[in-house]
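From the shared-data thread, chain only:
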Amino acid sequence: MSETTASLASANPRPVVAESATTRGRRARIALRALQVLIALFYGVASSLPKLIADPSAVDSFDRIGWGSGAMYTIGALELAGAVGLLVPLLQSVAATALSALMVGAFVVQMTVFHGENAATPLILIIPLALIAWARRGQNKELLRVVRRRA
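Structure, as tokens:
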């Protein structure tokens, strides 16, 4: 090894690759957290709020489905719970999975009742929800441990 290489190796004990991987990992975690906050805001404000305050457009949609106000309030509450769950570290993966399942149901309703009108919206939302559920899947062991301990 030449003197130049040896002096560089001793001056920088950590490889450059590890530093860039660490920076990349940090940026990925920040981006994922920002995505979670955006999705939580969408479900908490834009999606659940109209259902929970019985906005006329939400009432009309649920009347067209034939489910009535009970289902509207229930789905609004589930969406709000999912939005809160996306912000709680222990519940992030479970909340994203539950909201994905809700979006599968929304897609089926859009296709059958509304003849495909706005059917792309639930499908588009499933993609970031699946990413969040997968990326935060490590939290599931801890959640299961907490649930078992309390049982």
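The first helix runs from residue 3 to 11.
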